[in-house]
């Protein structure tokens, strides 16, 4: 028997194919018994043989009392209030009315005698409880697995892999009409929705191991349809809203999938309702849960080729489907073996299954054992040591590994093989291998692999990386768009540089293969586009709008773990407080300092800085009008060069002639004809900065929510970055995090949205105590904050405080009312403090009237932040005075010094655009000189044994002596690259030059000398130590 349609109830299907065609037809069937705002309540009837109501919609609204009066009293038969109501006409309508009459007329009477029989009140109470439980059960959400049919929104090809669950949403009286995420009237109904969906997905995950799922909501809308007589009537419309399909590999993925899907469906509902569509959401009728068996995740490490990479048509993807690993009896994860096997299969003419650029690995079994992979882990991580081991076991192959970025559609080489030649392949007797590319044989097979990386999560919630390797059949096609010239490219297998012709590649390889082992892909500037290096960062000539100066203090929690071995855990640090201020550089205003002491200090800091950023941008959004003075007008009129780029203003000669014809003086005409001359003013203070080109003026714009705001910590790279990273995920800009990392643990800078965290110690590599001491009495920000105190109190605040770091192991320490003894100020890193330092701490406690250690701590932290603000302000003024650059725009001293050099010298340095020039210079770079001295040693003691040269008495020296070194010698040089001045010196000493094969000519000037001389002169009187090293940065 064929089951009826689950939607419309049609049950006259003769074959299952009829039902399938019915479900898949273009115009879908409508659910039966659709009623507008109908309340579905459980009904209790007395008889089981009551005729069911018609499947048509209800047509009568006449009450039973009105009907009885109308039939009994003909005098009121023509009463319009009754006639206007619909009277039953068909049998179905009469049956429906009689059924409703039976339901209403049945009234159970209470029995005053509560006996034990079935007709007693006790029995009726039990029946009433059963009725209530059934009623509540009908109001709950129940998901049932139903026939698959077709996906309501997106038909799925592999319907055999699919399961579909349908849950009908109950509609009690107070069910909200619109609220999928945050219900308005009855949130408990939607609280039931999440656990029910989760239960279904857990069931499917248990059955299928790994699934991908989508959730669909069926909603009923009402929209007014206009008739021909200009009247309108409400029409019911049903729409499906579908969430994205997501893979679910673990139970922990279910909650995230439900949360994201609910948000996606809610957005679709909002899109339907807005923009004057006229739709009104009435009900959310049903929820569909679709699950599919995720077979690809079960077949080792297979990944489909990304679309943009597939479009290049240069890779072969080995599919491990159907291969069983004999060692584990599980699907094979040896995709590296498949990729290498695909290469050798293609070399041997096995080109089947290449139409879709996918090799079925089971068809390549004869080639899978071609490469020795003993001891190589599968799946294989991207590690140079592993691939070097493969090359050692297989002397005839060389492997290069690439990674692919689908977002930018660019390949990136990650492993460049150093094994270009076959070991011991030189056939020249007593050869010293000075030029290996001419005496040793190259490896026969150079294989390029593409690694696709997936992030995986284990059941223990540990994240890992899984790679899938593709064979790059056409490496030249991979770099086809390296240049704007879309001609055939020829790739160098060593440095990954592409060349337009094979001749240029061969010429390049003569130099490239003779270089050292360090290989990298070189991106050269384009001639005529970016082939000159000069100062371009004009926006860094003006002050940053403001800077945030901050600092953390941490407590030391005693460790509960005992670590074995030499390293030991001394303490676990946690942030217990922070302080920060906002310094507006142009106006001199200071917001703060703001101080916090308590639990979750790092999280509180991130949230407060986010809030502070809103206030900063509110200020930046206010554009102050320019302040015009007579003196500024004169400066503007006299200026003939741009104060930003120092370039001359252009003059429109035609405009001068036009103005002179109107009897305007030549001077005034020339001034007005300077079309690109504009008034440049500060948008924070309104002050005149100078006359500028229109384009230069636009480069100095300050844009709210875009201009970076620096946040300075002293030693952010080594310490404070760890504390910030603990809670940076709480920031509203957590999706915009970028770091400049030295290592996995040390960040030179971290950008979180508009905020740019910088380490001030990268500019001034000294302790804050020494930097504060160098300022002398110049502490404007500290003095302004303590302006209500006496000069003696202010002088204490201008010195670095003394703090008991290791003593603070809990918040309770802050309640102590006395300064700890001197031995408690001893720290693991710095050791004991002097008696003089302890007296200073006692003086600060007494002078500022600290009542407990918490107040002393707050004062110490506040003085640290104020001192750093004074140090940075002084350093900033020095840089602007000497170099016209604000260091707040930079990350470290080298980047600042580079721009300062370019700006101060005004030099334009020509860059290499030809790879052969680059290789020529690289070949001239040589390492340090080693000297091998041999002394004549004789044994002068009779009691010593005779010398035996086979005895090893210098293990390290003997091992290192076998390493190839650059040794000065008087032998011949061939293909030797040398500067002409040194060559002249060698010729003077007696060297004979036989042949000059290549010459690279260039112009050389002492353009850097003025910059070095300037720094040497200015460093003598500086108190801030950075500029003492600016010449060498």
UniProtKB/TrEMBL annotation:
Start-end of Polar residues biased regions: 43-58
Record Gene3D superfamilies: His-Me finger endonucleases
Sequence ranges of Basic and acidic residues compositional bias: 8-20, 122-138
Residue ranges of the region described as Disordered: 1-58, 107-138
Name under which the protein is recorded: DNA-directed DNA polymerase
């Amino acid at each position: 028997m064929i089951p009826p349609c689950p939607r419309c109830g049609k049950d006259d299907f003769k074959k299952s194919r009829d039902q399938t065609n019915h479900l898949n037809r273009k115009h879908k069937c409508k659910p039966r018994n659709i009623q507008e705002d109908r309340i579905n309540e459980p009904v209790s009837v007395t008889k089981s043989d009551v005729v069911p109501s018609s499947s048509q919609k209800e047509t009568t609204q006449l009450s039973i009392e009105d009907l009885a009066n109308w039939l009994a009293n003909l005098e009121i038969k023509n009463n319009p209030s009754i006639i206007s109501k619909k009277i039953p006409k068909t049998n179905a309508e009469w049956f429906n009315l009689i059924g409703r009459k039976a339901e209403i007329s049945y009234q159970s009477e209470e029995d005053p005698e509560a006996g034990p029989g079935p007709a007693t009140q006790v029995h009726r109470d039990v029946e009433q409880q059963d009725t209530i439980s059934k009623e509540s059960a009908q109001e709950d959400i129940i998901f049932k697995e139903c026939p698959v049919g077709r996906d309501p929104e997106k038909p799925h090809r592999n319907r055999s892999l699919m399961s579909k669950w349908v849950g009908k949403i109950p509609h009690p009286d107070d069910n909200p009409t619109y609220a999928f995420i945050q219900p308005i009237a009855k949130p408990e109904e939607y609280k039931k929705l999440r656990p029910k969906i989760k239960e279904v997905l857990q069931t499917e995950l248990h059955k299928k191991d790994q699934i991908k799922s989508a959730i669909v909501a069926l909603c009923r809308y009402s929209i007014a349809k206009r008739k021909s007589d200009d009247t309108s009537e409400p029409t019911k419309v049903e729409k499906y809203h579908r969430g994205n399909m997501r893979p679910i590999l673990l139970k922990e993925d279910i909650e995230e999938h439900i949360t994201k899907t609910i948000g996606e469906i809610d957005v679709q509902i909002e899109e339907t309702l807005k923009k004057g569509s006229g739709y009104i959401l009435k009900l959310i009728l049903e929820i569909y849960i679709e699950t599919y068996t995720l077979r690809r995740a079960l077949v080792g490490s297979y990944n489909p080729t990304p679309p943009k990479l597939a479009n290049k048509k240069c890779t072969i993807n080995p599919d491990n489907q159907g291969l069983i690993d004999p060692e584990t009896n599980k699907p094979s994860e040896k995709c590296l073996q498949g990729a290498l096997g695909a290469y050798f299969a293609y070399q041997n003419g096995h080109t089947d299954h290449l139409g879709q650029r996918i090799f079925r690995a089971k068809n390549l079994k004869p080639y899978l054992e071609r490469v020795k992979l003993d001891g190589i882990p599968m799946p294989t991580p991207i590690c140079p040591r592993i691939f070097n081991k493969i090359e050692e076991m297989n002397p005839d192959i060389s492997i290069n590994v690439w990674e692919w970025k689908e977002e930018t559609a660019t390949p990136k080489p990650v492993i460049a093989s150093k094994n270009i030649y076959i070991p011991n392949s030189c056939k020249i007797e007593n050869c010293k291998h000075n030029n290996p590319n001419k005496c040793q044989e190259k490896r026969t097979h150079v294989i390029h692999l593409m690694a696709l990386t997936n992030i995986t999560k284990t059941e223990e919630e540990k994240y890992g990386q899984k790679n899938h390797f593709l064979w790059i059949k056409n490496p030249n096609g991979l770099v086809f768009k390296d240049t704007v010239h879309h001609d055939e490219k020829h790739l160098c297998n060593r440095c990954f540089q592409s060349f337009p012709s094979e001749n240029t590649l061969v010429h390049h390889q003569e130099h490239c293969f003779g270089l050292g082992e360090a290989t990298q892909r070189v991106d050269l500037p384009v001639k005529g586009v970016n082939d000159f290096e000069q100062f371009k960062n004009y926006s860094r000539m003006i002050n940053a709008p403001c800077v945030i100066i901050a600092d953390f203090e941490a407590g030391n929690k005693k460790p509960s773990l005992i670590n074995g071995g030499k390293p030991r855990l001394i303490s676990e640090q946690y942030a217990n407080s922070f302080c920060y201020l906002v310094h507006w550089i142009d106006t001199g205003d200071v917001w703060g300092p703001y101080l916090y002491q308590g639990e979750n200090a790092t999280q509180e800091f991130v949230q407060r800085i986010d809030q502070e950023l809103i206030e900063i941008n509110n200020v930046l959004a206010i554009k102050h009008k320019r302040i015009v003075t007579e003196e500024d007008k004169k400066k503007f009129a006299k200026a003939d060069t741009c104060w930003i780029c120092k370039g001359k203003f252009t003059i429109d000669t035609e405009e001068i002639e036009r103005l002179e014809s109107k009897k305007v003086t030549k001077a005034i005409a020339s001034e007005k004809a300077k079309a690109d001359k504009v008034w440049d003013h500060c948008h924070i203070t309104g002050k005149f900065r100078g006359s500028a080109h229109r384009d230069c003026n636009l480069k100095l714009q300050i844009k709210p929510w875009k201009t970076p705001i620096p946040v300075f910590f002293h030693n952010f790279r080594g310490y404070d970055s760890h504390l910030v990273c603990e809670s940076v995920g709480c920031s509203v800009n957590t999706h915009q995090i970028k770091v400049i990392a030295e290592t996995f643990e040390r960040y030179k800078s971290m950008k979180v949205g508009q905020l740019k965290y910088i380490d001030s110690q990268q500019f001034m590599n000294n302790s804050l105590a020494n930097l504060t001491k160098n300022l002398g009495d110049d502490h404007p920000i500290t003095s302004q904050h303590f302006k209500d105190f006496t000069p003696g109190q202010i002088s204490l605040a201008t010195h670095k405080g003394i703090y008991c770091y290791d003593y603070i192991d809990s918040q309770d320490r802050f309640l102590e009312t006395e300064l700890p003894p001197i031995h408690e100020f001893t720290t693991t890193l710095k050791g004991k403090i002097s008696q003089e330092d302890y007296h200073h701490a006692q003086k600060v406690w007494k002078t500022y009237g600290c009542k407990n250690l918490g107040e002393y701590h707050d004062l110490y932290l506040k003085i640290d932040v104020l001192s750093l603000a004074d140090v940075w302000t002084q350093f900033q003024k020095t840089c602007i005075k000497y170099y016209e650059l604000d260091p707040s725009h930079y990350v470290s001293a080298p980047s600042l010094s580079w721009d300062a050099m370019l700006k101060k010298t005004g030099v334009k340095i020509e860059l290499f655009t030809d790879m052969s020039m680059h290789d020529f210079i690289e070949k001239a770079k040589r390492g340090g000189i080693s000297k091998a001295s041999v002394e004549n040693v004789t044994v002068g003691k009779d009691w010593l044994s005779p010398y035996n040269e086979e005895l090893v008495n210098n293990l390290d020296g003997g091992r290192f002596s076998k390493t190839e070194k650059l040794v000065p010698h008087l032998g011949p040089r061939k293909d030797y690259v040398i500067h002409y001045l040194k060559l002249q010196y060698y010729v003077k000493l007696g060297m004979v030059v036989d042949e000059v094969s290549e010459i690279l000519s260039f112009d050389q000037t002492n353009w850097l000398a003025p910059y070095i001389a300037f720094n040497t002169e200015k460093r003598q009187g500086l108190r801030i130590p950075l500029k003492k090293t600016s010449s060498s940065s």
